[in-house]
Amino acid sequence: MSGRIIPRRFFDATEEPDRFFLTIQGYESCRLLSLRKSLEPIKSLLYDIDSILEIVEQNCQKPANKLTPDESGSIYLYTMSWSPPHRSLSSLLNEHLRSKNRHGLTPWFPFLKLFFTALCKLPSIKGTVWRGARANLCDHYNVDHVWWANSSCFESLNILESYLGTSGVRTIFQVECFDGKSLQSHSAFKDENEILLMPGSFFQVLAKWQAGKDL
Fold it and tell me: Which of 6, 9, 57, 165 gets the most CB atoms within 10 Å of its CB?
């Protein structure tokens, strides 16, 4: 695990807006397309996507959970990292999910249809998951809050801390989830056992406490 650079989506709670938006509307009416066709409207945003899709297709030929190769591939692609300075699909998608310009999501609808179809086929995870941020977010969370983007969490606090560190200013979220989705069987990085909370997840803050210095 040491030496692996964890994707920034695990620690991007700092980017969640403190406001309410309209929910995502319109993607449901899209036809279910292949992964390649679903990416056509956003292809120009994704660096070297044709080469990356070749990797995806090679690694998603016999998916678990009765997913099709295209459905599994949408999850695999979501979990992949791009080499800097190029931005990953997950980074670009989550930026649009957090934007007040809901019309900006329209080109993403074909991919979202495929991605959400895949996620809905995965078994739901109920229980405690963990998310972290390298900032003090305590004052931003009072009673009710919505995470508008896909929210990447860890199943284990120990794994979160191994990446987040044990020093410096940090916020750790202990989340009791009812419908998390384990991406492990379809992820480009299976060691993390990423638990995904769907966009628009609503939370009630039950308690806040300082567990240690800068935490």
Answer: 9
